[in-house]
Amino acid sequence: MNSTNVAARCGFVVATIGALAACESGGPDPILSLTGSVEPVETAADQRVRSIDIAARSDGLAISTVHGETNSAIPALQSVVLPSDPSDCSGAPPRCTATEPNTGIPLTLSLGSFVRNLESDLDSQEAVLTKHGITLTDGRGGRYGPTYRQYGAWMDHAGFYVLTGARQQGVVAGATISITLRGAAAGGELAGSRPAASGTWQGVMTGTPATEDGILQGAATLTYDMASHTLDASFTHIVDLDRNAAHTVTEASFADVPVAANGTFSDGTVGNLLRGGFKGPGHEEAAGVFEQNGIVGAFGAKRQ
Fold first, then answer.
1. pLDDT at position 11, please?
2. Nearest-CA neighbor of 161 among 291, 288, 14?
């Protein structure tokens, strides 16, 4: 494998798996009804302004497992699964780097890269709806290749998003293959400590089926218990926005997830994990990623 060519080809994913911001607002009534949401209270351009500062202040980044397929005729190279390990992340703002075990293709992700490359690749970004004070935006890009889609939000101290249909090329054993990827990410300014009291954070989740491109949305609720330093997380009323109907899996949940002294939380392994952290002064927000029941998702929530 030509590692130099592979690394050069991988910049596309760096630019696209999470740029959240840009253009006009709007929200079709069927989606509002399906998700129990209201018309967007801000534009994608408003989020774009915040995103630059949030990315610069970010000191925490959570990445889901990245799933995908290739057009290779070699069976061992047709499925792409790139597990994310927090130990692969470093720097400020943090960057996460990992190598896909089947193809040997590396992937590097950072919030800063998403913001810098947004205007050069994203074709459109629209504010779709607002729920629990969080406005979700739907972005589509592909002026340099097939269309990809990203769905998520920038809050005040963190951003979260899911990406589907991202395309890139890689060189494996001298042959160039096309790769389609999907995954989720969340990052922002860590609170730096556990919450000082028990409490609840409510927000939204965005997601995608691990085995196919698609956009899912649901409600997110995190409950922190100060006595045990653990949290419970539930993602409910999960719907499929592409089919305008309830998803086949309507909820996911995690119990007794340990919260570290710096306000981060992590539990589980590939296919069944929760990872993220409390964000901003006073632990105003929480954001992270999860995987369960064939769903790869990201979430953001605000303290109640």
1. 32
2. 288
The tokens describing 54, both together, are 């949030």
CB of 97 within 8 A of CB of 86? no
**H or E stretch including 154?**
strand 148-154
CA–CA separation, 48 vs 27, rounded Å? 18
Alpha-carbon gap, residue 246 to 237, rounded angstroms:
7
The pTM for the full model equals 0.85
Measured between alpha carbons, how far is 11 from 15 in angstroms, rounded to an integer? 6
Counting as low any pLDDT under 70, the low residues of the chain are 1-28, 85-88, 108-123, 142-146
Closest CA to 280 of 201, 205, 207, 168: 201
| Structure-token match 């296919």, residue found | 271
**Alpha carbon distances (Å) from 65 to 122, 166, 254, 287:** 23, 14, 17, 16
- Within 10-107, residue ranges assigned H as helices are 11-16, 29-35, 44-57
Phi-psi sector, 88: left (phi>0), alpha (psi -120 to 50), beta: alpha
Sign of CA dihedral 95, 100, 106, 107: negative
Q: What is the C-alpha separation between 236 and 245, in angstroms, rounded?
A: 14
Q: What is the chain's Cα-based Rg?
A: 18
Distance between CA atoms of 193 and 267, rounded to whole angstroms?
18
Within 10 angstroms of residue 271's Cβ, the number of other Cβ atoms is 15
